[in-house]
Every structure is written in structure tokens, then in C-alpha cells.
UniProtKB/TrEMBL annotation:
GO terms for molecular function: transferase activity. This is Glutathione S-transferase-like protein. Residues 122-242 form the GST C-terminal domain. Keywords: Transferase. It comes from Sparassis crispa. InterPro entries: Glutathione-S-Trfase_C-like, Glutathione-S-Trfase_C_sf, Glutathione_S-Trfase, Glutathione_S-Trfase_N, GST_C, Thioredoxin-like_sf. Residues 29-113 form the GST N-terminal domain. Belongs to the GST superfamily.
Length: 242
């Protein structure tokens, strides 16, 4: 009975949020939760808001109750994961996977390319940006995510799994540390330019303590890069969403 009541309550709350969001007519709607993947997109949206005045609505998803597995959400993302972006200005076109969302926003809303590079005019810089985005998407995110799971949430203690994923996370931090030698940002000429490559990696690395890493002192370039990210108002606003 209580399970059914909770389901009805969540449905009514979701309907109310959807009606409220629809009435605002903001161009973008973000379905998200307070996770590293969710924060990547909210950081980009806050940067776009500060730069171009583009506003957006937020629908907070309760992943603790598997709201992202409900049929209405599966229609938006068959993989049942957050975040999902809905573009109301483009016939409610929906985008899932964080790297894909960042690239979509950069393509359609970053008209002055403040957070990316022109693939025709700056092909090498654009390629570097993609390389470091995919490095995070295929490396840091999955490995640190598994470290988080086995250290924080696994129903049984599996020392091998905890060590394997924590060691790999640390190895990937070392790769970042090498890249950030004499650089401020991951992609771009000379010392680099702040871009969606940084937005894509920052939320995971900023959550280092959650997987049991006590300090970033072992990776001083990464530590300085984290501090530079946190100096940006858009980053600070983005990590506070939802």
C-alpha cells in the first residue's frame, strides 16, 4: 500500500513539475540529479546562461527510488540514466549521454564558441577537445564510478574490486596530471582554453574523496586545475544544481 502511495505521490509531483516547467517557456529542460554526470551539464548550462542569457528549467530525478527507470523517463532515454536534455526550441528534441549533451549545447547554443573550437578553423584544437572528452567518458567516469560503487555501495566487501578500480582511477589522474603540466586547461593552444573538455572531467575529479582518495597532493597539476575550475562562477552555480 505504502509503495503504491509513494508511486502515486511521485507521479503527481512529476506532473506538477512538468506543468510548472512548461509554463515558464524556457528553451531548455534538464532532467538531472546531484551526481558528477549531472553536474557536467548543469555547469555548461550555467556558463551559457552567464554568457548568453540562455535560461533553463530543472527537473530533479530521485535516483534513490529509480525514478529514471519509470516508463515516462525511458521514453526520453532508453538507457534509464540521467542526465537528459530536452530542447524546447527544437521540437522537444532530447539528448542523453553527457558528452553528447555538451557537444550538442556547444553546437547549437555556444554561438561565439566560448567553450569549444571551430572544427574547420581550429581542427587540431577541436580534436584535442574531443580526445580529452572521450578520455573522461570512457576512462575516469566508468573507473571512478566503479570505485565509488565497490567502496560505498556494494552489498559485500570485495577487496580486489575496490583496489582494482581505485588504482585505475589514480592512474587516470596521473594521465591528467601529465597533460596539465605547464597548462591551465585540457585543450587548446599554449596553456589551453577553458572548454567542455574541462567541464566533462571536473565533476568526477572534484569528487575524489568519495572514492577514498584523501588528497590531490600526489597530482599537483590536477589540484591546481580543480582550483581554477572552482574560481568560475558558472562552475560554482552548476555544481549546486539541482
Amino acid at each position: 500500500m505504502f509503495s503504491r502511495l509513494n508511486s502515486v505521490t511521485r507521479h503527481l509531483a512529476s506532473s506538477h513539475r512538468a506543468m510548472s516547467s512548461a509554463s515558464t517557456k524556457r528553451p531548455l529542460l534538464l532532467y538531472t540529479a546531484g551526481t558528477p554526470n549531472g553536474r557536467k551539464v548543469s555547469i555548461m548550462l550555467e556558463e551559457l546562461k552567464a554568457t548568453y542569457g540562455i535560461d533553463y528549467d530543472v527537473h530533479s530525478i530521485d535516483i534513490s527510488t529509480n525514478e529514471q527507470k519509470e516508463p515516462w523517463f525511458i521514453k526520453l532515454n532508453p538507457n534509464g540514466r540521467i542526465p537528459v536534455l530536452v530542447d524546447r526550441q527544437r521540437a522537444d528534441f532530447s539528448v542523453f549521454e553527457t558528452a553528447a549533451i555538451l557537444l550538442y549545447l556547444e553546437q547549437h547554443y555556444d554561438t561565439a564558441q566560448k567553450f569549444g573550437f571551430d572544427p574547420a578553423a581550429q581542427p587540431n584544437d577541436y580534436s584535442e577537445m574531443l580526445q580529452w572528452m572521450f578520455f573522461t567518458h570512457g576512462g575516469i567516469g566508468p573507473m571512478q564510478g566503479q570505485a565509488n560503487h565497490f567502496i560505498r555501495f556494494a552489498p559485500e566487501d570485495i577487496p580486489y574490486a575496490k583496489k582494482r578500480y581505485l588504482d585505475e582511477t589514480k592512474r587516470l589522474y596521473n594521465v591528467l596530471n601529465i597533460r596539465l603540466t605547464d597548462r591551465d586547461w585540457l585543450a587548446g593552444p599554449e596553456r589551453g582554453v577553458y572548454s567542455i573538455a574541462d567541464m566533462n572531467a571536473f565533476p568526477w575529479v572534484n569528487g575524489y574523496s568519495f572514492c577514498g582518495i584523501e588528497s590531490l597532493d600526489e597530482w599537483p597539476n590536477v589540484k591546481a586545475w580543480i582550483a581554477r575550475n572552482l574560481e568560475r562562477p558558472g562552475v560554482r552555480a552548476g555544481i549546486a544544481v539541482p
